[in-house]
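Protein Entry — a single chain follows
Fields — amino acid sequence, structure tokens
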Amino acid sequence: MVHKKLRSCYFYMPVNIHEYWRAIMNYIEYLYPVIFLGVMGFVLLAIGIRSQSKKLFAAMAMASLAVSFILVIIMPFNGLIYNQLKFSRFDEIFSLILIISVIIIVVPTMHDLKEKPDVFYALLLFMTASMLIIAYSYNLIVLFVSFEGLTIITYILAAYNKTRRNLEGAVKYLFIGVIGTSFNIFGISLFYLSTRTFNLLNVVNISYSRALILALVFMIIGFGFKLAIFPMQQWAIDTYDGSMNSVSSFLSTGSKIAAYFLFLKVLYLGFPGYNIYIFYFFAILSILTMTYGNVSALSETNLKRMLAYSSVAQAGYLILVYAIISYPYHTLVSRSVFIDFGLASAAFYSLAYIFMKGASFISMSIFKKDKIMIDDMAGLNKKSPLLAFSFAILLLSLAGVPITGGFLAKYFLFFTLIIGNIWWLAVIAIINSVISVFYYLRVITYEYRRPVKEEFNLTMGVKYTVIISAFITIALFFSFSLFSYILGVARI
């Protein structure tokens, strides 16, 4: 009787000691990357008692992230552990994307970091471990706790150098983060009251009751703050502008993609079916977000804030996928193919985005001051032609210009809208991409046509991170086979 009751309990664990031990071993096998990163984080803290070498901790953090990257690739997939954690190739892709978003900032951080490198790099590893749990888990409680762990670490990183600008941006971020967390708690609670489960894999044949609709609304608001979508974006502009460049890079990429993938799972599995109201809500939200971001960037003269507004616009493109998976009408292909294209587009866009946006923020480290204006880019081509070319490529990729990964990412996303018969939304998105070309070209013009205005601090770590990211962005333009692979495993 007791055994049957335990089996019916949501968090069932086997009674037999051998079965229990086997279950633990299964968990450990699948969580090797998470455990490894956690252990290495504590190792860095221990070494920090005797040494404060930035190069040492950067090297150890980079090696740890590289090992975790390999562990994710070689670990077994297509597994389901007690209906709580699911491991698929699609989860693997997002896991690798999230690890890369941290790898990009490891070396450039040495340029901006003023104190306690052991703590900073340990926090990066703990943060990555939290993101991997987000990628694997389908339990709302685990997802929420992991995401809040990630968010708390980003609060610390945003204020890490303890300058007035850092602290001002971090306080705004903390205040907005608490509001977003409150909405998520309300949403998850209402979701449980409506479905009687926290497990997204157990949600079947639901009816959209008022409580469930309200749960969705609360979670949209909660994650809307995290994703910095209109009208919940202003904190991001101030926080990105005030934080260290490497932290701004991560907040605009890794943190955002983690929240994006988390809510993608919640929406796709927790609110299954196709609802016209949900579709139009996300379509309008996407239009408002991308338009606000692009129009605001047009008139911005502060370069870092312009990149922040650009991040808002990019979030607008990303949430087009939320509209796609909610679309209820006839499509030009089968619905399953249409949804697969949407999910694959989300993954490919996320991959291109972390390189082009992450490296763009890192490029700001070439300046010796905090407040960076667009005309400060004047003459960069004369100081470092390859760096100027690389930065130009990153900006053109964000605009979606051909021969860049950003173009291919937007092509697949807009193509998905077209085969779904949502051509009007594709047209609006394309118009927004054209608008973005103007403010990106303004920056590039200063790079090549104006005399040198500022002294640039061309550190090797920053320079090569930007150059490598730019060439990867170009390589992504030719990666149709990569998209085909992602399309083949695009299942949540």
Remarks:
- Residues 293-492 form one domain.
- Confidence is low (pLDDT under 50) at residues 1-15.
